[in-house]
Each structure stands twice: as C-alpha cells, then as structure tokens.
C-alpha cells in the first residue's frame, strides 16, 4: 500500500518539477507573449491543486509508515513545501509584472479585428476611427439589453478573440451585483461559455425586464421649470424604454392614452397648458402627436435660450451686473472692536463703553454712524434712524443733553466709589446652548473631463441662489466670470461678491455632535455619514434645486432631536439638537478687590524675621524620604515611597525575608532546602517572624518527617496536598503526594452523553490545571480542536460535526488514564556537581511549543535528565510557512527560559537550545538588519534574551518538542520516555551530541546579505529548581 502511495507522490513531485522547468525557462526569456502569460496563469492554478493532492498522499503515507521512518517523511514534506512555495512565488511575481498590462489590455485590437472581419480592411483605408470602449453593466435590468447587444457585437461574436480573452473582457465589464453572478465560475477558456450563459440566464428574464422598463416610465423625471434640455430628455427616456419593451415582443399599439397621461403629468405648468391648446383640435391624440409637440416646444425654447444667452453676454461686456439676491446664508461677521465673531452692536465690551467713547471709536474706525458698518458712508445708509430721537445715528450712539454735561462728573464719582468698596465675588455657570443642525450631504461632482470630485453640500431651502467656493471651482476647472452680486442675510447683513467666495460658511458644524442620543436607524443611507463632524462646506444648494431633490419619506429621532428626510442624495438630518447631543460649556470666574487693602495694611503691620523651621528625628527622615524617592511616571502621576521603618528580619535574616517575600502565594508558602537542618531552620525562623506579627502558620507538610518533628500535630497536614484552585472548579487538577514526593493528576469523570457544543468544550478545556505544562502534548490536542471549532464558525450551542466530535470523544475517554500518572517532583539529582539547562522547540502546521530539561551530573559521574516545564501554542489561522512557525517556537522557548531563570536561584553552568529547523537556526545566528520585518523582529528579541546561550541543531526524530506540536493522547504520553527525559544522546558525553554546524545554502527572508554572529560573554544566572526537600504550608 505504501509503495503505491510513494509512486503517487513521485508523480506529483514530477509534475512540480515540470512546472519548475517551465517557469525557469519563461523567467529567462524576460519578455513573455500574451499566450505565455495565459498559459502560466493556467499552470499555476493546476499546481495549487497539486499541493492539495500531495498533502493528501503524504498524510496517508505518514499514517502507515513506521515511527522510525517518520522523520524521513517529515523531511520529504519540508523539501516539497520549500520547492512548491519558492516556484509559485516566482510565478506570481512574473504574473504581477504583467497584471497591469493584462488589466489594461486595450479593446483597440479586438475592436479593430472585429471591424476588419465585419467590413473588410479596405473600407477604412486612410480613416482613423475612434476607439470603441467596452460597455459596463452593474446589474440594472434597464441597461441589460443595451449591454448584451453591445457585448455580443464587440466580443462574443468576434472570432479574432480566444475564449480566455472573451472571458477577461466579460469580467472587466461587470460591476456590482452582476460581477457576483459569475464570481464562482472558474477563470478558464471553458469557463467563458458557462459564465456568459449564467449571466444570460439571470438577466434574460422578459418578465422582470418589462416590469423594470414600465417602472422607469412611471418614474420619469418631473419638469419643474421648462427648458429645452429637460423636455428633450423626457422624450428620449420615454422612447428608449418603449423601444426596449418592443424588443421584448410586447404589443404597445394601444398604450397611447396611458402613456400620454403619464408623460403629461411630468410636464411643467406652462408646457402642459400649451399641450392642451395643441391637442384641443385633435379628437383622440396619439403618442406620436405628443412627441412632435414636445420636439417643437424644445426647438422653440432652445432658440429663445440662445438669444437670451447672447444678449446677457453682450450686456456683461458693457456693464457689471447689479443683481441682488437674498439668502439665509450664514456669513462670518467680525466685531470691529473686540475682533470676535459677532456684530459690533452685539458686543458687550462695546456696550459697556460710555456713549462719547463709542462715538469716538466709530469716528476713528470710519464706520457708518447709522448701521455701524464700514462699506458705505452715513449719508448713503438705508437703515432706519435712531429709535429714541429719530436722528440719523445708531441708538447705541444716542446722547441725552444731561448725559453730555454730567458724563465726566459721573465718571469721577464712580472712580471714588470703587476705591471705597471691597468686593470679593465668584461664580460658576454651566451653559448647554441649543444648536440646530443644517442639512448636509456628501456628493460626487464631475469636472469638464468627467472626473469625479467629492464635495460637501449644504442644502438651504431659504436661499434664492446657489453658491460654490473658490477652491471647489478651481478643483473642477470651471471658467470664472466677473459679477457684482450682493448677498443679504439676517437684518439685511450684506456681503458683496464680485467674482468668487472664499468660503460659504465657517467650518460646520461648529463642534462635534454626539450621535449616540440621536437614535438614527442603522439601516438608513445617510447623505452625509459624517454630518456630526466639523468640516468645510464646498457648495450651497438653494431653493432652486432643494425641492427637486426632496422625497416624501420622513422619520423622527425622538423628542428634542432632529428629523430625518429622504432625498435623492440619501437621508439628510436637520433640526434642533437636544441637550444630550449638544456641547456643554462651563465657565468659572473670580473677582476680588481685597489685594489693595492687603497692600495698604503692610504699612502698620509689625515686621517679623525670616524664620526657618528646623526638623528633627522622624520629621527629617520623612522629608528626606520624600525628596529622595519622589518621581513622576510616564502617565503623569507622581509616586513616593511610604516612610515605613525597615523590617528587622530584612536586616538580620535576609534569607528568611527573601523566602517570605518570594515563596508565598497569597497565604500559602511553598519552599524547600538542600538539607534537613537547613529546612528545620527555615521552618523555625519563618514561624517565629510571622508569629511576631500575629500570623500563625498551620497545615505544615513535608516529604521528610524529620523536618516537622518540632511542630505540633495540630498544625500538620498529611497525605496528598492539592495545588492551585479548588478541586470543584477543575477538570484536571495537580496534586503533591508528600510521602512519595511525586506530582499526581486527578481527573474528574467527563460524561459524553450530554449535548457536546463549542461552549462545553471551551468550559472543560479552561478547567485543566497544568501550570508547569508537563501535560502539554495532551492539552494541545484540545487547543487544536477549539481552533477547528472557530474555523468552522459554529455557534456556541450548535452540535459539533461528526469529525470533531469523534476526536473530542476519544480525547475525553482517555483523559481519565492520567489518574495513573505520577511525576517525580525533584528534577535535580542528589549531590549534583554540575547542572545544565537544555531547551527544545518545534512546530507543525497546527501548533508549536517549547520544553525545558534539567541535565544534572552527580558526584559519581552519572547523568540525569528530567523535564522541568513546557509551553505550547496553537498556530495562527492565517497560514505561515514552517520556518516562520519554527522561529515562533524558538521565541517561545527564549521567553520561557528567561522567565524560569529569573524566578529560581540555581546557577546553570551551561544553557543550550535545540532546533530541528536549519533555516530558523540560521536566522537566529544572523544580524536582524538584513532580515525582513517579520523575521527581524523575532530574531531581535531572541538574541536579546539568549545572547549568552548556545543554539544548536538536532534531528527532527530526536526533538521532544515535536510532541508539543503534534500532540499525544493520554495513553501515549505515559509511555513516551523521550518526553519525560529528553533524547537519549543528552545523557551521553558532549562529543556524542549532534553536530554543531548545519549550513543553509539559500537562506530565505533576506534583504541583502547574511551575517552570522556567535554567542559570547557567558554570564551566571540564578535559578531555583525543585530542591531535594520541600513542603507546603497554609
């Protein structure tokens, strides 16, 4: 069976070799023909299927092959992966270079070919015909017939084009929903006919086509103001839809009365009156009579419009236009006095001036004394007189006779009064002003070259004119003409426009509006999705177009909230904004005149010496502590150490203080010692120190009874100690047997008869308590199953597919076998003379992991290797190459080692890391600045964490981390010696370890060149491991 599979694999590898030779040959040619590009694209699609076939065959081979030869098969897979991804990458790069040329493949050649086939080349000698552009179709039934006829004429019936070229033009011509119809059809020569037939079957629906054309007739644009262009458009649109209905073999001979009624309802009042006059003499008018009338009417209006335009152009050359338009346009008015955005007659600072000061300022600023503006003199002002005396000045400038005589006296009196008064006032106010949103929309405006530009439009039904800003006019490339136009706002505030407007209004809205309280339905297509954000206005649309754009649908957003109104541009929002959405302004003020009295009181106060307080004892220590330890964090907060007195035990017994500080988890202590005497000393002194603070330790337990011989029986704990959380919350719990000094696992029974869903699997997996990762190969199976559930996109309570359910059932059925597993707690041998740390990392397509082993040598020269801890992770859903995953595993190993070394107190004479990926190993030994970003970032961190350690190569079959990447069932892990004690050669002499060097000829992911760096500067680290004697106390 395996020989047959190997032959199948050989055939697949031969196909890949053939594709490689083809790509290399075309790569050497530098310039490819269109046929070569198409052939390369088709071959690449076939090779992608080849990769799937290889994986299926390889999985079957690995399932039946002996374990001894499994590593050889892994190498086969790795070699094929490297060859496949390398050659497909080269092919895709070649295709990318020709994509732009292929995408922009001109229709010129096909159109010319079609022209030569249809009419012969002799008919077009000396004549250069314009290029026929390809039609576009987005799925609208109204445009289907036009698109079908055009495409069949240019492409489908063009014998000069190949099927693959026709398919390319078809895909380039489809947009929107139409493109989705053929999206699933394979892009091949044979797929073209399928795609075209699928498209025709979808849109050659006579019933729907007729329905849409009749709907369009009923929805013809209404003419509000008679112009020749609008009338002609009405006739043309009606004729187009009727011709389409006739092409669909519908009899429209008796439709005239209905069509006349529909068309007449779209006419403006004047044209409708003329039609009634025209048809009065006809007994039963026909549709043709109406068309003839409308064409004649359009010709007449076109003549009149031409004459009016010519006349207005001549008049513009002779004199400036003096047309005045009034608008509710909001213009920015700057105060002449305080320069803020309000009129001077609204300025509180100006009003607080004395009348004669106001008059003096108006004269200096050369303002009109009547309306307080600077664009005309008082004699020409058209604003009304003073409301008090009816004279021609502003009411703010009005002076009574007695005010003129007593103004100076009153000023002096007020000054004297102010000097006698002492005032201290303060206030705080919160203002939530009402705010009205105006209607805005985001539109596309086309310039004279039909190029679209995005613009923000303000819809103002109260404006008689439409406006456009100077910047928008320049973007559109419009021709500008001189004008003399006055724009009036509220209170006849006038702005003059001679040619252009720099801005229509200020940034609108003035402040951002909170949309959470507006209750806008999420399914509405807003005309301006960013109506709540401040931004410039490019165009103002007045009443001339506002009501044409308006539709009948309207929605409310609730009480004191704006109203939504449907328009041709989408839904616009306008109206009063409630307090929850409006901006809140809070102001505070303080006014005091007490300072003057304080200054005067200094004249009679007794002067005192400059006394400095002298600090003693605790006060001085507190101040010194503050000045020495006060600092500011990056988040801006200030931090100072509390002035606490030092602990006595930290000064006299630093070892006991270190145990209390580092070996407690909440109220549980877990520590140990090398000898019984030292353990008894720790037990005695820790109890004494904590008892002095009224903390009495209880439930002592140890693996040696002599350690606890001086502790009362009431404070002892015997038997098995549970580690971690409460047992009732765990699926799999970790325990310590004090008597045997072993770690045990307690697995609760899992009942598979209940409904198994993603929720139950996640719940049970989360309860597995394995802090050291000793069961990493078992737990990674559950992690991979969880990822499979996410990939399948199953809901939380949906029943699992059979394939996943079978794997989960097998996993849970075997989980109880872990109750038989026991692991020695002590990983360092007795009387160790040398201790080393060895780490292994590996990855597969589904997971990657790292494990650490302690290699200790006793005084007799015997070597002991034991598993210390492990960690595994599931590979990301997004597919990564195997070398990249191997690098991720190496980074996980580096982080795990750094955490272990920093948390323990044993010194390692040597730290060695092992990988079975030559590429990842070469990356780690390369300077990161020549590697690509993904690789460089991880290599930098690895080199930082392990710069004093060794990295070496190990064969795949000797790598125990392979179990973390592929997983082991509980029945398998118990008998897997390599997992618990590492590879066999780790117990041998250093000279019998795998070779140190393993070169890679063509290292991937390189920017320019490769630099290799070896480890230097070995440093000593302190690491604490499981000692010979240990206990737990609560």
UniProtKB/TrEMBL annotation:
<dbReference type="Pfam" id="PF03564">
    <property type="entry name" value="DUF1759"/>
</dbReference>
<dbReference type="InterPro" id="IPR005312">
    <property type="entry name" value="DUF1759"/>
</dbReference>
<dbReference type="Pfam" id="PF05380">
    <property type="entry name" value="Peptidase_A17"/>
</dbReference>
<feature type="region of interest" description="Disordered">
    <location>
        <begin position="400"/>
        <end position="423"/>
    </location>
</feature>
<dbReference type="GO" id="GO:0071897">
    <property type="term" value="P:DNA biosynthetic process"/>
</dbReference>
<dbReference type="InterPro" id="IPR043502">
    <property type="entry name" value="DNA/RNA_pol_sf"/>
</dbReference>
<protein>
    <recommendedName>
        <fullName>Peptidase aspartic putative domain-containing protein</fullName>
    </recommendedName>
</protein>
<dbReference type="InterPro" id="IPR008042">
    <property type="entry name" value="Retrotrans_Pao"/>
</dbReference>
<dbReference type="InterPro" id="IPR021109">
    <property type="entry name" value="Peptidase_aspartic_dom_sf"/>
</dbReference>
């Amino acid at each position: 069976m395996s020989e047959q599979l190997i032959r199948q694999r050989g055939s697949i590898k031969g196909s890949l070799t053939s594709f490689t030779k083809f790509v290399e040959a075309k790569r050497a040619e530098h310039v490819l023909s269109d046929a070569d590009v198409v052939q390369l694209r088709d071959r690449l699609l076939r090779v992608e299927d080849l990769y799937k076939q290889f994986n299926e065959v390889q999985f079957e081979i690995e399932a039946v092959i002996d374990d001894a030869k499994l590593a050889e098969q892994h190498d086969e897979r790795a070699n094929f992966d490297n060859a496949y991804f390398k050659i497909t990458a080269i092919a895709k790069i070649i295709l990318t270079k020709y994509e732009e040329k292929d995408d922009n493949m001109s229709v010129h050649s096909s159109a010319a070919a079609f022209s030569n086939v249809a009419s012969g080349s002799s008919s077009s000698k000396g004549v250069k015909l314009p290029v026929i552009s390809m039609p576009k179709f987005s799925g609208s039934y109204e445009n289907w017939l036009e698109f079908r006829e055009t495409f069949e004429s240019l492409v489908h019936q063009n014998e000069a084009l190949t099927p693959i070229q026709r398919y390319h033009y078809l895909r380039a011509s489809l947009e929107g929903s139409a493109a989705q119809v053929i999206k699933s059809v394979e892009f091949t020569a044979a797929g073209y006919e399928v795609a075209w037939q699928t498209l025709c079957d979808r849109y050659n629906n006579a019933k729907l086509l007729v329905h849409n054309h009749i709907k369009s007739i009923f929805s013809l644009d209404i003419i509000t103001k008679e112009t020749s262009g609008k009338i002609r458009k009405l006739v043309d649109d009606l004729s187009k839809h009727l011709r389409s209905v006739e092409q669909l073999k519908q009899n429209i001979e008796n439709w005239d009365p209905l069509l006349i009624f529909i068309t007449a309802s779209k006419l403006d009042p004047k044209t409708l009156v003329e039609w009634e006059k025209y048809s009065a003499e006809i007994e039963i008018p026909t549709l043709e009579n109406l068309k003839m009338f409308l064409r004649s009417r359009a010709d007449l209006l076109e003549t009149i419009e031409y004459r009016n335009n010519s006349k207005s152009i001549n008049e513009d050359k002779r004199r400036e236009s003096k047309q005045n338009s009034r608008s509710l346009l909001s213009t920015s008015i700057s105060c002449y006095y305080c320069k803020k955005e309000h009129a001077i007659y609204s300025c509180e600072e100006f009003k607080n001036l004395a009348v004669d000061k106001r008059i003096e300022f108006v004269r200096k600023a050369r303002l009109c004394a009547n309306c307080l503006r600077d664009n005309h003199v008082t004699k020409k002002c058209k604003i009304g007189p003073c409301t008090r005396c009816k004279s021609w000045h502003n009411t703010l400038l009005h002076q009574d006779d007695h005010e003129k005589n007593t103004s100076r006296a009153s000023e002096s009196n007020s000054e004297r009064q102010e000097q006698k008064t002492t005032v201290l006032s303060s206030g705080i106010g919160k203002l939530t002003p009402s705010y009205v949103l105006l209607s805005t929309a985001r539109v596309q405006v086309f310039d004279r070259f039909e190029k679209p530009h995005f613009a923000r439009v303000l819809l103002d039904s109260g404006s008689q004119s439409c406006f456009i800003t100077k910047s928008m006019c320049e973007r559109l490339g419009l021709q500008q003409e001189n004008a003399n136009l006055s724009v009036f706002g509220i209170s006849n505030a006038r702005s003059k426009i001679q040619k252009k407007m720099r801005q229509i209004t200020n940034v609108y809205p003035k402040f951002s509006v909170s949309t959470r309280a507006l209750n806008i339905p999420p399914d509405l297509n807003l005309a301006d999705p960013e109506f709540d954000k401040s931004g410039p206005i490019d165009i103002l649309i007045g009443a001339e177009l506002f009501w044409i754009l308006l539709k009948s649908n309207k929605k409310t957003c609730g009480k004191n909230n704006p109203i939504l109104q449907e328009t041709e541009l989408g839904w616009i929002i306008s109206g009063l904004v409630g307090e929850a959405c409006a901006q809140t302004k809070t102001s505070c003020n303080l006014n005091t005149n007490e300072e003057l009295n304080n200054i005067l009181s200094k004249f009679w106060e007794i002067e005192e010496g400059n006394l400095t307080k002298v600090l003693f004892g605790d006060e001085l220590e507190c101040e010194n502590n503050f000045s020495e330890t006060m600092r500011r964090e990056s988040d801006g907060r200030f931090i100072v150490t509390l002035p606490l007195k030092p602990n006595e035990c930290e000064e006299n017994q630093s070892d006991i203080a270190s145990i209390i500080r580092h070996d407690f988890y909440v109220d549980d202590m877990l520590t140990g010692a090398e000898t019984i005497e030292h353990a008894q000393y720790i037990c005695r002194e820790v109890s004494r120190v904590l008892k002095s603070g009224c903390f009495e330790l209880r439930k002592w337990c140890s693996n040696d009874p002599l350690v606890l011989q001086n502790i009362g029986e009431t404070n002892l704990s015997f038997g098995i100690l549970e580690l971690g959380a409460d047992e009732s919350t765990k699926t799999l719990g970790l325990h310590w047997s004090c008597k045997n000094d072993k770690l045990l696992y307690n697995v609760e029974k899992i009942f598979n008869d209940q409904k198994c869903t993603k929720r139950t699997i996640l719940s049970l997996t989360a309860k597995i308590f394995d802090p050291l990762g000793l069961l990493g190969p078992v737990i990674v199976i559950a992690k991979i199953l969880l990822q499979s559930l996410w990939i399948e996109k199953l809901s939380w309570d949906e029943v699992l597919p059979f394939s996943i359910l079978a794997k989960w059932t097998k996993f849970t059925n075997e989980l109880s076998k872990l109750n038989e597993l026991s692991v020695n707690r002590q990983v360092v041998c007795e009387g160790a003379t040398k201790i080393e740390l060895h780490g292994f990392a590996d990855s597969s397509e589904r997971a990657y992991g790292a494990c650490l082993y302690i290699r200790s040598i006793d005084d007799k020269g015997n070597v002991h290797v034991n598993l210390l801890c492990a960690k595994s992770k599931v590979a990301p859903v997004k597919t990564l190459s195997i070398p990249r995953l191997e690098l991720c595993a190496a980074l996980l190993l580096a982080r795990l080692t750094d955490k272990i070394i920093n948390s323990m107190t044993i010194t390692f004479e040597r730290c060695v890391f092992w990988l079975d990926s030559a590429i990842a190993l070469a990356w780690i030994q390369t300077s990161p600045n020549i590697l690509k970003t993904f690789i460089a970032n991880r290599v930098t961190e690895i080199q930082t964490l392990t710069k004093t350690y060794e990295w070496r190569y190990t064969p795949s079959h000797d790598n125990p981390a392979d179990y973390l990447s592929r997983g082991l069932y509980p029945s398998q892990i118990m008998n897997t010696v390599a997992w618990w004690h590492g590879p066999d050669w780790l117990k041998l002499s250093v000279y019998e370890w795998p070779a140190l060097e393993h070169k890679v000829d063509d290292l991937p992911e390189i920017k320019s060149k490769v630099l290799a760096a070896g480890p230097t500067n070995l440093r000593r680290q302190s690491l604490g491991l499981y000692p010979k004697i240990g206990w737990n106390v609560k």
